[in-house]
Every structure is written in structure tokens, then in C-alpha cells.
Write a sequence for this structure.
């Protein structure tokens, strides 16, 4: 409906002067816009031009094509590459959208009425007049990927709301004035690999999200003013910062703090414990202190002071400690009341996990090769406890094609005669907890737990279910070959659905366990023409292996897999 209304509006404008382009108020059709801009046939009647090509084209516009369009307010040029720079741009523009503009702006150009500038991946430099004029209407700037911008100078933009300078690879310095923009809401500086100097203080009262990911030469963060109460997300992954200022305590509404892979960062300030609303924390250093009496003096192991203070982070739901030199996850982590996701991937000195909270839904412990067997068993027991699966309860024997021939169902499946005892045929009164919760655990290992009663080295396993779908846990033993794939479930050969995506980098063997929400499985069953005995097929597909876009039936990335019901 929206597209139809838009087309109707364009046609109404075209009918204003169907044969005389310069008399129209707007030029929206590609051929009409191109004709005016290549022949210099513009006029003061034209208030908007859109030159949009579905495919990348090279054309040559008249260098003074906009000279006569003194009332032009809207200019949008997309997928059109020009060979010569323009000598003039309209000074009354409100919207200037021209991605990949290949030249600098005209030296004398300034447009004090601008509301939005969208020129990503362009070759522009900010002209001096642009710096000197008062751009009071400007609310949006998108100059991401503009490699000729080296300094963001002093600009008068008091109403700026969105500033995107991401991947300006030669940007080094940002003027102090940008630390006092009271209406700025979102600021992107991610990927500015040469950025070294930010404003010394940020007093951005409306700032909601601040992105500094990948700013590897940025060593110092600004002081955060106490009026920065709106900031919700601070993203510093891969930056070169050496410390987090104690003024971070002023970010009282912060709920996401990303400090992953900050290689120069050695510690966090005590004031971080004042972030009572923090919901997501990713860090490679979390108030670490050396272990005592656990290893000799040459040990590089650490314990996490942060994890001994669960009361300080009552809202924490997501915690990533990947690539830390930690030795122990203490029992106190079980007292984090809302923690759902924990990543300890590549913690290569980690020996022990003393506990996990009941709220946990996902644990990633890839490549923790020193993790003791007791901790691994504790993780498995957590799966059992969360899902309600009873280990070694055999409700049937899965048979995979070719490997386990059988006389039933064309050699695919052989089931225990006690099957009906385990699956009630009625669903009335059944209640489900955690309706939309997936439970996932990934940790180092090479052997599937014996209590998985359906196992296979082929790409499918089968079992039977009654009218109530049983609780299900699927385990995949991942080999040393990387791949991206999915696990699908079909019931009665009807409506196959993807229930899990697996992205495995290879190099190390890991176990990937997951348990789909039982309510989702039950709803799937109810939509699959259910009877008292329903045939369930669980299968995996490899979409990409070694970055080659080929689908494989058998993958070296999966050594063995199975399910428990």
C-alpha cells in the first residue's frame, strides 16, 4: 500500500507538466532527472530531485547542473558515478543524500538550512565555510567511510541528533565542541583505526548509544559528566583504551558495556559497581587479582573479584569473560539472580566451575581445555536439571539409515515396545515453563554423554512421540573442521523447521548441547496432523564448510551427534 501511494504521488507531480520538466516541482523518475542534470535545464521551480539507478551507472552531469535550481530542497543521487566534480551545489538544500560522491565539495559551498547530510564512502572534505556557518537545523550526519576526513573541526550544530563517522580510517581528532551536544542521541565512531583524541569531557545529555569498537589507537576515554544519564550502550570492543575512568559511575542508566578484546586494559575502577542497571557486560578483564596458593609464583592465573559481588549487579543477564586468564568460576556466580548467558570461551587456564545460577540459559565454554571432568559433569547436570531429562531413560532406539538396519519402517527405526508408557496421549492440563527459552551449552570435549539414548554418525535420528512432545536435548560432537549448519526437526514428514544454528570455527573439538522450548515443540506437533504415535525426525544440514558455499550430506566438522528424550 505504501509503494502504491508513493507511485500515485509521483504520477500526480508528473502531470503538473508532463512535457516540460523544468516546470515540475519534483523530478522522481530516473530518465527525467538525468535529462535535466545532463543538459542543464533546471529552474527555480524544481524543489526536489531523485536520481536513482537500480544498477551502478557512470554518467556525466553538467558541472553547473544545479546553478539555476536556487529553490532545490531535496537532492538524492544513488548508484550514479560521475566523472567530473560539480562546480556548484544549491545553498538551500534541506536533504543532501549522495553516497560515494567521488570528489570534494565545491570550495565555497555551505548550506545553512541543511537538516540531513548522508554521504557515506565519499571523497569529501569539510569546506571552511561549512565550518564557519551556523547549522542550527542539522540533525543527521552520515559520513561513514569518508577516508579524506582527518579532523572533525569545530562546528555549530546544536541540534545534531545522529552522527555517523564509522570507518573514517584517517580520522585522528575530534574537536571539544562535540562533547557538549545536548541533543546528540547516537554517535558512531567504530572502525576509526587512527582515532586518538576525543573531547576531554562528554556532557551529552541525550546520548543513548556510543560506538568506539575497533578504535585501536584510542588510549584514553573522556570524563563522563554526571548529566549523562541517558546513555544505555557503550561499545569499546577492540579499542586501545588503557583504563576506564571512574566517572563511569555517572552513567546510571547504562545497561550494555562492551570491553571485549581491549588488550591494553588491565583493570576496572571500583566505581563500576555503581552501575546497578547493567544488563550486559563483555570484558576480557573484570577486576582481576592474582590467585593465591593455587599455583606457583610463575602462574598467570587470576580469580574474578567481580564474580564475588553478585549483589552489585542485580540486573546482569549477559556476561562474557572470553579470553580471560581466570582459573576458577566461583560458587558466588550462582547468586546472580538474572544471569542467563555466560561466555568463557578461550579461557585456557580455567580449571573449575564451582556453580551456575538457576536462571542460566546459555553457556559457551569453547576451548577451555583444562576444565576438569567434575566441572564438565556439573555443566551436563545443569542441562539435566534445566530440561527435566532423566538420564538413561530409554524410550526407544534411534536407527540411522545404513548404519543400523532394522526390519521396521524400511530399516530406519526400531522402537521399544514400552514406548506408549512414556508419552501420554492427552495434553489437557499440561503447563509449560519458559515458553520461548532455548537452553544452549558449548564446552570442550570429544565424547558424547552415554545418557543420550538416540545417537548416530549419519545426518538424521528418529524417534516416536505421543500427543505430548517429550522434553528434548540434542548434542553434537564437533570435530576440527569448521562449518556453519543447522539442526532441523520434522514431525510426520510435515513442516520441517530449523531449531538451532551451529557456527563452528574448527581447530578444537567441542560439545554443542541445546534444548528447544517444549512449548515450541508441542505447537509444532499440534500443526503436524498428530496421532497417538508420531514420527519425529531430527536432522542436521551443513550450509558452509571451509567458507565454501556447498551443502554437504556428511561433514567432517561433526563427529557424532544424538538426542535425549
Amino acid at each position: 500500500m505504501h509503494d502504491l501511494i508513493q507511485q500515485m504521488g509521483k504520477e500526480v507531480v508528473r502531470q503538473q507538466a508532463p512535457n516540460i520538466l523544468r516546470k515540475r516541482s519534483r523530478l522522481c523518475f530516473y530518465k527525467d532527472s538525468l535529462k535535466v542534470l545532463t543538459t542543464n535545464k533546471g529552474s527555480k521551480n524544481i524543489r526536489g530531485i531523485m536520481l536513482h539507478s537500480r544498477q551502478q551507472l557512470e554518467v556525466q552531469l553538467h558541472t553547473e547542473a544545479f546553478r539555476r535550481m536556487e529553490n532545490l530542497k531535496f537532492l538524492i543521487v544513488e548508484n550514479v558515478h560521475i566523472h567530473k566534480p560539480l562546480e556548484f551545489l544549491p545553498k538551500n538544500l534541506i536533504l543532501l543524500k549522495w553516497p560515494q560522491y567521488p570528489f570534494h565539495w565545491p570550495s565555497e559551498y555551505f548550506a545553512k538550512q541543511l537538516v540531513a547530510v548522508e554521504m557515506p564512502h565519499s571523497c569529501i572534505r569539510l569546506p571552511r565555510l561549512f565550518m564557519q556557518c551556523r547549522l542550527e537545523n542539522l540533525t543527521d550526519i552520515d559520513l561513514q567511510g569518508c577516508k579524506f576526513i582527518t579532523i572533525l573541526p569545530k562546528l555549530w550544530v546544536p541540534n545534531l541528533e545522529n552522527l555517523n563517522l564509522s570507518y573514517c580510517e584517517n580520522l585522528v581528532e575530534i574537536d571539544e565542541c562535540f562533547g557538549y551536544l545536548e541533543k546528540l542521541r547516537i554517535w558512531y565512531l567504530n572502525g576509526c583505526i587512527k582515532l586518538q583524541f576525543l573531547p576531554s569531557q562528554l556532557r551529552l545529555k541525550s546520548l543513548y548509544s556510543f560506538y568506539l569498537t575497533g578504535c585501536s589507537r584510542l588510549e584514553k576515554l573522556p570524563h563522563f559528566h554526571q548529566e549523562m544519564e541517558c546513555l544505555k550502550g557503550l561499545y569499546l570492543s577492540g579499542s586501545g583504551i588503557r583504563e576506564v575512568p571512574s566517572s563511569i559511575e555517572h552513567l546510571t542508566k547504562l545497561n550494555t558495556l562492551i570491553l571485549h578484546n581491549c588488550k591494553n586494559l588491565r583493570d576496572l575502577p571500583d566505581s563500576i559497581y555503581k552501575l546497578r542497571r547493567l544488563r550486559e557486560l563483555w570484558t576480557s578483564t573484570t577486576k582481576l587479582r592474582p590467585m593465591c596458593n593455587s599455583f606457583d609464583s610463575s602462574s598467570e592465573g587470576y580469580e574474578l573479584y567481580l564474580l564475588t559481588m553478585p549483589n552489585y549487579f542485580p540486573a546482569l543477564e549477559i556476561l562474557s569473560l572470553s579470553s580471560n586468564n581466570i582459573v576458577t568460576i566461583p560458587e558466588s556466580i550462582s547468586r546472580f539472580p538474572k544471569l542467563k548467558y555466560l561466555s568463557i570461551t578461550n579461557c585456557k587456564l580455567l580449571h573449575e566451575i564451582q556453580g551456575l545460577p538457576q536462571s542460566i540459559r546459555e553457556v559457551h565454554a569453547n576451548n577451555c581445555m583444562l576444565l576438569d571432568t567434575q566441572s564438565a559433569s556439573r555443566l551436563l547436570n545443569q542441562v539435566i536439571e534445566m530440561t527435566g531429562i532423566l538420564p538413561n531413560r530409554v524410550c526407544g532406539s534411534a536407527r540411522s539409515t545404513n548404519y543400523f538396519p532394522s526390519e521396521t519402517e524400511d530399516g530406519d527405526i526400531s522402537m521399544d515396545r514400552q514406548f506408549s508408557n512414556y508419552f501420554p496421549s492427552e495434553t489437557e492440563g499440561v503447563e509449560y515453563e519458559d515458553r520461548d527459552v532455548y537452553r544452549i551449552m558449548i564446552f570442550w570435549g570429544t565424547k558424547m554423554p552415554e545418557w543420550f539414548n538416540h545417537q548416530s554418525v549419519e545426518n538424521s535420528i528418529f524417534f516416536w512421540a505421543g500427543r505430548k512432545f517429550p522434553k528434548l536435548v540434542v548434542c553434537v560432537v564437533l570435530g576440527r573442521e569448521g562449518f556453519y549448519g543447522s539442526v532441523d526437526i520434522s514431525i510426520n514428514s510435515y513442516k520441517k523447521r530449523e531449531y538451532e544454528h551451529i557456527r563452528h570455527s574448527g581447530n578444537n573439538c567441542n560439545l554443542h548441547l541445546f534444548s528447544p522450548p517444549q512449548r515450541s515443540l508441542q505447537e509444532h506437533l499440534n500443526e503436524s496432523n498428530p496421532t497417538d504415535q508420531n514420527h519425529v525426525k531430527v536432522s542436521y544440514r551443513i550450509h558452509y564448510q571451509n567458507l565454501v558455499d556447498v551443502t554437504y550430506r556428511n561433514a567432517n566438522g561433526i563427529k557424532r551427534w544424538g538426542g535425549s528424550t
The first helix runs from residue 2 to 14. The CA atoms of residues 479 and 509 lie 5 Å apart. DSSP finds six helices and 32 strands in the chain. The first strand starts at residue 26 and ends at 27.
